[in-house]
Amino acid permease (Natronolimnohabitans innermongolicus JCM 12255), 744 residues
Amino acid sequence: MDHGDDSDLQRDLGSFAVFTIASGTMIGAGIFVLPGPAAEGAGPASALSFGIAGLIALVATMCAVELATAMPRAGGPYYFASRAMGPLVGTIVGFGAWLALIFKGAFALVGLGWYVTELWAVPVLAVAVVGGLLLTLLNWIGAEETGHLQNLVVIGLVGILAVFAGGGLLAADTDNWAPFVTTGVEGVVTTTGLVFISYLGIVKATAVAEEVRDPGRTLPRALFAAVIFVTLLYVGVMLIVTGVMPVAEIAESTAPVPDAGRLFLGSLGGAVIALAGVFATVSTANAAVLSSSRFPFAMSRDGLVTSRLSRPSPRFGTPARSIWLTGALMLALAVLFDVEGLAKLGGTFGILVFALLNVTVVLLRSARPEWYDPAYSVPLSPVLPLAGAGAALLLIPFMGLQSQISAIAFVVIGIGWYYLQTRIGEPVEPDHDLRDQLLGAQYRRSIEEKRSRIGTPSAAGPHVLVETADGEANPHLLTAMRSFADRFDADLDVLTITTVPPRRPLAEATHDVDDDWRERLERELALRDHAVVFDHVRTRDRTEAVLESVTERTELVLVDWRDPIENGHLRESHVDELLQSAFPVRLAVLKPRGTAEIDDIVVATETGPYDRAEVELADAIATVTGASLTLVKAVPDDASEEAVASARGYLDELTAVLSSPAETELLRTADVDAALVDRADRTDLLVMGAPTHPDRVSAFFGRTTDAVVAETETSVLVVKEPGVRIPFTRRLWRRLRRFGVRPS
């Protein structure tokens, strides 16, 4: 995953520096700007809103730490999402996370202007612009120097707020907290969405993971401490502010925390609190520049933006161009937008990123790629990450229509930018996408399911139901019958069916079954340890006769398919209806094309994992007969290297689950169907799975299985897991045919 030493960053940041960076991105707007609108929205219960937002942020922090300890690279959420879900999703997350912090940084710069004007009569925008330029310059000089500034700012800020909290607890009037919830549950939830932007920095702080010493130990300690500390601080400040001031006065104040401080600390105390507001907004803006500048740096290393942004400064070793670009955009937004617009837009982008990070952890845990080895793991996964993602997304409706429309528009623009960059730019990294990771997760679940269930009969004293054609059996069918009886320790129920036309009495129907078919089959099977029960059924509906013969002890239904394979014949055929029926057991359809011994078996598939049934039945035949067994998977030529490696690993793991020795073959080809047909022609028996939900308009088994089964010259065993019910229109067609009626 590395992209070369020329763009690696120095590891300068320790635990305390990361703690102050994370805390600094949160302590600011949340405490010194939002108490007014928060109190107006929920009254004293606004403290509860900060606590709920903090819990959601803590879950996202756990996910971010797991991802960061597995992938300690610059770029934070962008790097995590791109490696898990591919460059397209990574582009959206990268730009979204970058803009979220830029908006928050611009919001902090405007807040800085507000609090400076509490102390001196200067223009708000002038303070914002000068402050932004100085912080950009400082970040250009180096991350270590930035960390030192964060240490000083946060230490000073915490000291001042400690004085505020100590005096406020004694001055708070509990009568001001009654009623505690003034606007109901909806008001609390709405306010949670409003204040959520205060927590964005905790996840974005992982963007400096590549510059952290010992990230496996440093990041969990620093980030968990930061989110817990800041949440308690928010809750405490809101309780104090609402405890010393009426809600109406808080809502009207432009600086509610200093105004509250003046009530119990005097004019000097209020001025000191205003100075703390300056520290807080400087801290937020500085941390935003530091963290957000790492997103274009990481994206440029992957070819999603110009490569110039990935070149560290030769003098300071920092991503200079990325830092100056971020600083310029932050200043422009501070001039163009008001505080409320900046807060809501940044918060909406941040919520989407939080949710995607939680989903990323679940996806990587399921796929388990070889490179994913985090030093920290989120507890109670996947329940906790998914609950955190759902809670975060539920806040978006409360962020305002403008923010929602902007987020949607940005996602569309991000997708457009990605496809444009792939056409005009260099190849982007990584070369896999979300589908590859989802496929990897399917492979993992497939292995776990097969490891626990293969070779274990689902019924006590199992039976295998076999439908023969006219009481006869091809040598390959006999081999399959003997193998399944031995492998599952099952008795055989052998069935032959005569279909009687409508209006003809069943008892008068003639049939072509020889009288000695039972003795002949029993002699050819030569089973000593398993009973064989024979039955001949006359019926109006052949498919229903098979279904009615299935009992609670039936483990498998094996059907001998003698009819020709032509697309026009497959539709509405007996085998078609069987494959589409609600079988409670597995169904195997054998198309015999030879009489020689089965010495070589191939289990083939295109995409996705094998069904349990197809590998288990192939393994059963190979184990009993001693035939060689090969697992074959065909992938397109343009498949990503991640997809190829995942498929190869899946095949290798699957061989360890089987009873018989098995080889594996991975075919990379431009024509999957032709490659599988060619491989099938060189074996004695091909085993393929019928899809659970085939395309009923254009396919019988499924496109690839249809083509291979029809074109190969070898015997084919098509296997289907139970559970799919025949569609209503097909059932109606069957009943009409049963009574001799044909729709016009």
